[in-house]
Each structure stands twice: as C-alpha cells, then as structure tokens.
Design goal:
One of its GO terms (molecular function) is RNA binding. It holds the Pfam family NXF_NTF2. InterPro entries: LRR_dom_sf, NTF2-like_dom_sf, NTF2_dom, Nuclear_transport_factor_2_euk, NXF1/2/3/5-like_LRR, NXF_fam, TAP_C_dom, UBA-like_sf. The chain has 551 residues and is α/β, with parallel strands linked by helices. The protein has 4 domains: 105 residues, 2-Layer Sandwich (Alpha-Beta Plaits); 155 residues, Ribonuclease Inhibitor (Leucine-rich repeat, LRR (right-handed beta-alpha superhelix)), CATH 3.80.10.10; 176 residues, Nuclear Transport Factor 2, Chain: A, CATH 3.10.450; 53 residues, Ubiquitin-associated (UBA) domain (Helicase, Ruva Protein, domain 3). It contains 15 helices and 21 strands. Strands 14, 15, 16, 17, 18, 19, 20 and 21 form an 8-stranded mixed sheet that branches. β12 and β13 form a beta hairpin.
Length: 551
C-alpha cells in the first residue's frame, strides 16, 4: 500500500474509484536496466493491483533494514509492505500497492538500497502482479483494527497504547514501523479518525495517556495537531531519542507525567537537576518524570525516592549483590546458592492472605508459613526456622522456578557498617512455568563480609503476598512475557575457600561420602556441584563408587 496521487498522501485518503481490470498485464522492471516507459506507467497505475518486489543479496536478518529503507524512499508518501518472505537464502519478496510516481522514485535510485549496515540490496518489481480480488488484504482496515484494540476507554483516563506497534500480532504480514516519521505521522492521524467519539458521553472523556514506548523512535514528527484531546501523560520509554529538543512537538500539550528512561538523551546530563531543568523547558506543568515527583523542592516537601539508601557508598555493592542473588534465585536449580548463605544462617518464610486459587495451589506445594500470629502448634515455630545453608537451600529448591526483574524492585538499605549491611527489597515476581498472575514478595537480608572479599547472608526473612492495588497502573508485560532469554545465565566464577568448604559439606550431606572422595568428585567437576552429583549418581547406579568412599 502506498501514497495516492493528488494532494493527499495520508493513510486514510480517498481512493479514486475506477474498475480494476479483470485481466492484468504484468510488467517486470529490472534493476539491471531500470526505466519508466508507457507500459510501466500503465501497469503501475492500475487501481487495486498488487506489485511484487523481488529482493536480491539479502539475509534473513536484513528484513527490517530493507523495508525501512524502501519506505523512506517513498516519503512523504506512505508505503506499506505486506507478506515479506524469504524465497531462498539470498532472495526475498513482498507485495505492496503504489502508483507510477513512486515507481519513478525507485527507478531514480537505480532500484537499489544501501542499508544502514552498509550492504547493497538490488530489487526487481513485477508491476500489476495480482489483483486485490486474488489477494484480498485490506491494509487500512487491519491497521484500524489494531488501533481500536489498543484504545482503552474503560477507565476515566482514556489511553491510546501504541507500544511495540510494529510487532502487534493483529498486523499479521503488514509491516508498519512507527520509528519512520511518515508512518508515525499517518498512524497518529488515522488514530484520530478511528477513535473519534461516537457519542456525547465519549466526547466528554478525552484521551489522557499516550503510550509510545518500545518503538525505536528517533524523532517525533507530525504535520498537524492531530488530536483535540488533552494529553497529560506521554510514555516514551525505551526509544532512541538522543536530544531533549526532539520532544518539542508535544510541548503544546499540558503534560504532567512524562516517561523518558531508556532513551540516549538521559545520559546527556551530569545531574538529575540538569535533566529535570532541560525537560521542564518544554513541559512547564510537569509533575512526574520517569516515576519521580519533581518540582516539590521549593515547597519544602520531602522528595520521593524509589530506593532508600542512607549510605550512598554502599549503593553499588547492594545492587551488585541483589542482582547476583536474584540471578541465582531465578535459575532452574537453586543449588547455585551454595556459598551465598553463611554456615550459621537463619531463614524463615511467611505467607499473606492469598486470594487467587491458582496461586494458593502453588504456595501449598512448598511454603512453610512461620506466621507467629497464626500458629496453633507452636512446635512448628522452631521447625520452620531453618538453620544452616543445607536446610535453607533445600527449602528454596522446592519453590517453583521464578522470574524477577530488577527494574520493578524497591530497595531500602536499612543499616550499614564497614563489614555488614541490612537490605529490604520488595516487588512483583512470577512463577514462570505457570499461567498464574504476578505475585508480590518482600525480603529482608542481613549480609556480612567474609574473607576473600566475599559476602554471605546470615539472615533471610521471606514474605509472599498478593500484588498491591497500586500495581494495577504499572505495566508488567516485560515480567509476564517469559522467553528462554528472560533469565540471565548464571556463570559461576572461582570459589573462595569458604565456598569450597560449603560445597564439600553439601556433597557429603547428599551422598554420605567422606571428605577425601567428596573433594575428589568436586575437583573433577571443577567445583560444579551439579556435575559432581550427576557423576556420583551415574557411578553409584553402576556400582563404580568404591566402598572406602563411605568410610
């Protein structure tokens, strides 16, 4: 789909009404000798005819670069490719609709594309390849349906959510990337038409929130004030905006909440004050920037901080420790925790009033609820207070595989000395091999320094509960969409003497072997406890473990 002739180049322009020819006369335009003659013009101008583009010297990973380049050639007209597919290892094809003025641009470019990675791609065009009846795909209707599906008017604050737009499954084979200015402009204008109020009640509830995150936007360009709506929130997280001046097109709106983190422009400022000042030049009414309340210093109101860290020197150490902790926690087997808990460590778990039945079933499978206010049998009070790394890690291994994301966690450094610290961390998490909704956890860890510049946990208090109502407005899609790459791979480094001692004790506990043979198995496994256990089990089942190993 591409621009129409005449003064309008928008996606919702009126198409000239003309009967499509029953029989097409395809004309092939080759990159080897590109030229426009009468037959090319006639084939290009057939109404509702698909043209086929044949690309050479391409690789599978070049798709987006190729389509972006060809769309940009057509600007300010709109060109929408559909049904892109690899025909061979080096040849790809796609379909689109366009007229002779666009074809002339391709010819002027000698029907070749120079991609951003430096590669040159050549292409042929088979004009009038298919009729619309033969390949019935209404691009305008598909894009309109996607916009409708992403428009929420259920709450008082209407929201137009265009995040990850080009990857929407409803688009199917239609390629519609918002990071290209002409596409961005046309999608906003189409949105105005698609979600226009259909009654007076809707007209009184203007759109307040525009979500544009994760679209690789490098600019924000639109040719007119496309919305009569009163925006107060714009979410531009995780795009490629490199300078604050690029925000100017939205400066005429009375924005009170703005999200910019994940853009290169955030690294242009040496202090938070400079960053806030630069943004407020364009949005003087701003109250919330990247989740932080701003503009309250002059009112002598305490500033809200996501993390409370009294000892600023410790912040990097605390974050590094917690990243390591949750990377280990989210592994398939929490046996990797060996060495992280002190020999005298204590652990207890409590469970809140879980309301979801599916969550209750999971909790029942592993939880030991040491809630002192609910104990009937106080003998359990001591039983559920676990002592030592062996018992703690065994308990942690019973919990199903989880997924935590540091960006969603709140961290408070409660106490700090030269050789210890106490940290409180809370946030949402999911059991990644289930379909249950996210849950909430809080954890208080007391950590002490050991030899070899290592740190160990001496006290771990773990609480699991429902997610708080305030989390309803937080986008947790990154947490809910679990892939094979969601959990960072854990690569253990060389162990300290204390860690090796704990691994040795654990292997003895599991196998009942003596010191000598336990150490032998660990050394042969490069101190990989899982490999050592695996080797032991294989040899034990085949009677290849000598009897002196148990003496």
């Amino acid at each position: 789909m591409a621009e129409n002739t005449g003064s309008s180049n928008t996606i919702n322009s009126t198409t000239t009404t003309k009967t499509t020819k029953n029989f097409l006369n395809p004309v092939r335009l080759s990159y080897k000798d590109p030229s426009v003659d009468k037959s090319v013009e006639n084939a290009a101008n057939v109404i509702n005819a698909w043209h086929k583009f044949i690309l050479y010297n391409v690789a599978k990973e070049d798709k987006n670069l190729i389509l972006d380049a060809i769309i940009e050639i057509c600007a300010p007209g709109l060109f929408i490719p559909v049904k892109y597919q690899m025909e061979t290892d080096t040849k790809a094809t796609f379909l689109s609709m366009c007229r002779s003025n666009v074809i002339s641009r391709f010819v002027n470019q000698k029907m070749q594309l120079k991609l951003k990675n430096g590669k040159i791609v050549y292409y042929d065009i088979v004009l009038s390849y298919l009729t619309f009846k033969e390949f019935n795909l209404n691009v305008l209707q598909i894009i309109s349906n996607v916009i409708k599906a992403r428009f929420s008017k259920e709450s008082i604050r209407k929201t137009l959510n265009l995040q990850n737009f080009s990857t929407d499954k409803l688009l199917g084979s239609v390629y519609c990337p918002l990071h290209i200015p002409v596409v961005f402009d046309n999608i906003l204008r189409l949105s105005k038409t698609v979600i226009a109020p259909i009654n007076n009640r809707d007209a009184k509830l203007p759109i307040r929130d525009l979500i544009l995150r994760n679209n690789n936007l490098e600019s924000l360009v639109f040719t007119e004030k496309v919305f009569s709506f009163v925006f107060s929130k714009i979410d531009l997280r995780n795009n490629k905006l490199y300078d604050v001046t690029l925000l100017k097109p939205f400066s005429e709106y009375k924005i009170t909440e703005l999200w910019l983190d994940g853009n290169p422009l955030c690294s242009n400022y040496s202090s938070a004050k400079d960053y806030v000042t630069a943004v407020k030049c364009y949005f003087p009414h701003l109250q919330l920037l990247d989740g932080e309340i701003i503009g309250i210093e002059d009112k002598q109101v305490p500033i809200y901080h996501k993390h409370f860290v009294q000892d600023k020197i410790k912040i990097n150490l605390v974050k590094q420790f917690l990243e390591h902790f949750f990377t280990c926690y989210d592994q398939e087997d929490r046996l990797v925790f060996n060495g992280l808990y002190d020999a005298g460590a204590l652990f207890s778990m409590t469970i809140g009033p879980i309301t979801d039945n599916s969550q209750k079933q999971i909790i029942k499978s592993f939880a030991t609820n040491r809630n002192l206010l609910k104990f009937v049998d106080y003998a359990k009070c001591t039983e559920f207070l676990l002592y030592g790394p062996e018992k703690i890690i065994t308990a942690l291994r019973r919990e199903p595989a989880t997924l935590h994301k540091m960006k969603f966690l709140d961290i408070d450094l409660l106490y700090s000395t030269s050789n210890s610290f106490a940290v409180f961390v809370q946030g949402p998490f999911v059991y990644r091999k289930t379909n249950v909704p996210p849950m909430w956890f809080t954890r208080t860890l007391i950590v002490v320094a050991k030899e070899d510049n290592e740190f160990c946990i001496i006290n771990d208090q773990y609480h699991i509960d429902n997610c708080p109502p305030s989390l309803n407005n937080v986008d947790l899609s990154e947490l809910k969409i679990v892939t094979q790459h969601s959990v960072p791979q854990f690569n253990p480094i060389s162990f300290s003497g204390a860690e090796k001692y704990q691994l040795l004790r654990l292997l003895q506990e599991l196998t009942t072997m003596n010191d000598k043979y336990s150490e032998k198995y660990l050394i042969e496994a490069s101190w990989d406890i899982r490999q050592a256990i695996k080797t032991f089990m294989q040899q034990y089942l085949s009677n290849r473990v000598p009897t002196e190993a148990f003496k």
